[in-house]
Structure formats: structure tokens, C-alpha cells
Fold:
Amino acid sequence: MGASPHPEMEVRKTELAAALAGSDLRIATAESCTGGQLAALLASDPGLGPHLDRGFVVYSAQSKTEMLGVPPADVARCEAVNAAVAEGLATGALKRSGADIAIAVTGFCGPQQKDEEVGLVYLACASSRTGLAQQTCHFGDLGRERVLDHAVMAALALVTSAARACRTEAALPR
Structure:
């Protein structure tokens, strides 16, 4: 994360650790704009690291298709920054891992090129137990590091919701 991490980052990590505590849930990350920052954050935390199955860094358009099976037509739209790509990254990571939950991040972090909306980030979280959740964020042009921090924090919040939902689903009588 940036030189001075956002104060909310620790809160988000603590919430996720609490949601995962006592479970065997595993997480896979599929990261484009964040370039592995989310996986690194999970791996560096003693309460979160044991839940990390793997991380896919799929920064280039070609890697999204090759590694995670995102359809080339989706990748070609909006320079691979759209909801369909986020969904494809999450479902591809879930399929190609041993994880229960896969989180995907794609976006424009700046500086602006062409007509990109700096701070536009798409997230998708796929779970074999609870399905798919998506979120679109418009963080604004806060500077690259701050947009990246906000993207990671939003991803942590989405994974926390998925972990809670998986645990609730697992606790339901069959």
C-alpha cells in the first residue's frame, strides 16, 4: 500500500480476520490494477495468510484471457475495465484454484490516459457457496497510491461479506 496507509485498512483487515476466524475458508485473488497488493496484504497478516490459497496478477489484457479465461470480447471493451471482466476474473480464479472465495479487482488508478475515468474500479467476488457479488467504485482522481489503497479496502470489505455469507450458509441445516 502507499507510504502512509489509510487508517481504515487495519479496520478492514481486522473485520476480515474475524469473519474467517475458526473457519477453513480459502481465498484466491485476481488482481489487475492492484498488481498483487491485495494478495500481499493477506499474506503478510498472520490471521489472514493461512486463508490465502493463491493470487493471480493479470495486469495485461492477454493474461486475463490466458490465465483466467476471460472472454477476449470483454477484455477488448473499455481497456479491460468493466463489470464483465471483473466477473470473469473472479469466476476464473475460483475455477482455477482451491479457494472457496475469489475476489477480483480491475480499474483505472491513474494518471489519466485517453478518456479513462481515474478512480473507476470494478470488483467482483465469487463463491461456490453464495454466488457472485459485484461492486462499482468511483473513487475519483485521488492519486494512484490512494486509489490503490481504496480499491484494496473495498476488496477486503467484499471478501468479508462473502466470508460471513459462506459461514452463514454452512451453518444452515440441510
